[in-house]
Design goal:
85% helix; 106 residues; mainly alpha
Length: 106
């Protein structure tokens, strides 16, 4: 086997430097602190609160209708109350997350 020449070693070093530079440029800056993942998680949590409120209100309204025999009114009122409670919880959670982000930024 022949020894690698000095020129090929220099070419390998240059290629390695270019690869390191390209890798550093393509690495997302927010991957270090995970803020994007936290933001997505917060959004899913807020969506879950809204959907949970709507479904919870529907369920409670349906149960009320079954026992009180007031067929459409319990579901409608439960849907409205559940939506209101879910939206209120989501707005409060978003406000809390916003305040946390502002305090962290300062």
């Amino acid at each position: 086997m022949s020894e690698p020449s000095e020129d090929s070693q220099e070419a390998l070093k240059r290629l390695q430097n270019r690869l390191d530079t390209l890798t550093a440029e393509r690495t997302p800056t927010n991957a270090v602190d995970g803020s994007a993942g936290r933001g997505i998680g917060e959004g899913y949590r807020l969506l879950g609160e809204v959907i949970g409120g709507v479904l919870g209100g529907l369920g409670l309204g349906w149960v009320f209708d079954r026992f009180a025999h007031t067929t459409p009114f319990g579901v409608v009122i439960g849907l409205l109350l559940g939506t209101g409670v879910g939206l209120f919880g989501a707005v409060m959670g978003a406000d809390k997350a916003s305040r946390r982000a502002a305090a962290k930024k300062d």
